[in-house]
Amino acid sequence: MARRAFGRVPGSSRGYATAAPTSTEPKRLGLIGARGYTGQALTTLLSGHPPPQPLARLLSPTRRFAARRDVENMEKEGVVDAWVMALPNGVCKPFVDAVDRGAKERGENASVVVDLGADYRFENDWTYGLPGCYATSTQLLLAPLVPYLKPGYLPTVFGVSGYSGAGTIMENDPATGKLVTKPKVSAESLKGGIKPYSLTGHIHEREAGHHLSTLLTSEAGPVKVAFVPSVAPWFSGIISTASVPLKEKNDSQGCGWVKDVAQLQDVEGEHGWTVGGFQMSVEGDRVVVVGGLDNLLKGAATQCLQNLNLALGYAEYAGIPTH
User: Is 255 an active-site residue?
Assistant: First the structure.
């Protein structure tokens, strides 16, 4: 999610990160937080951003109140071109407010702000450019099928994610007495199995339905999605399976390789999205599609860097390994 940075594709209702003129000037990045898996993945990507236009990490605060003052002062002095909020859900707003205060004191528009969390994904004043990991895969699976959805019937998405998707917590290390970052869920705690959770009302369920409805025009009206996630004993990577009722009977032909089902090895550690496994029901009134991505990369850090590159005038894939 980013604001005050991006334009829109002409004739489209979709906010698109197309934005700043091409630049050769070095840009300065303020990275706030970044203690969790996603922040670490983004830091790794930033370390490989190609010269001569490096993105420099300026700030990773550990004390919230002191950090807010730092953010406000740095924005006031104009030393940051873009801020990345790599923070837990629900704690971003005070830092965004600090950016706004600093910009107001400077008398100019605020710097670009990109939020890796969910705090602003339903805000009309923000450009929707960084969906949640499950919401990314769900929307990519369903968006082409929206015109064909059967009215009154929910497309259902079953998602399985590596345990890094559950995030991290801060705990005291008994040996040192210091705060350390630990996974909320581990492979050991799952004991080789998968664990369903948030069986209804997951935030990415609401996010996907909301934005499929607002970003795409559907004769069927608002799009509602049934989404059921599970966490698995591998580290990263999401496989999503969508079962989609169709308003008219259809058939498939000439699909070729797209019948290959996306698997974990296709997405883990990769920076894009993989789709396959297209199959029609015998009656032709339902299609099943499988897609996948790495929840820490294309589901978070890679998208973030794509947005930053476009907002700051770099090539979209600068610093992102591509095949």
Answer: no
- Asked if 117 and 251 count as a contact pair (C-beta separation under 8 A), the reply is no
Q: What angle do CA 91, 97, 98 make, to 5 degrees?
A: 100
CA 191 – CA 112 distance, rounded (Å)? 43
The domains of the chain, with CATH numbers, are 2-130+300-312 (3.40.50), 133-296 (3.30.360.10)
Please spell the DSSP secondary structure of 152-201, one letter per residue: T---EEEEEEEGGGG-EEEEE-TTT--EEEEESS-HHHHTTS-EE---S-
Structure tokens at 196: 């369903």
Render pLDDT for 64-96 as a digit per residue (tens, 0 to 9): 545 888 899 999 999 899 999 988 888 889 999
The helix/strand/coil state of 206 is helix
Kind and range of the H or E element at 139? Answer: helix 133-142
User: Both tokens of residue 17?
Assistant: 């990160």
Count of positions (residues) in the chain: 323
pTM of the prediction? Answer: 0.85
Pairing of strands 55-57, 27-33: parallel
Task: List alpha helices for 259-322, DSSP H.
Answer: 264-267, 302-312
Q: Looking at residue 6, what is its pLDDT?
A: 37
Q: Which of 92, 133, 255, 304 is catalytic?
A: 133
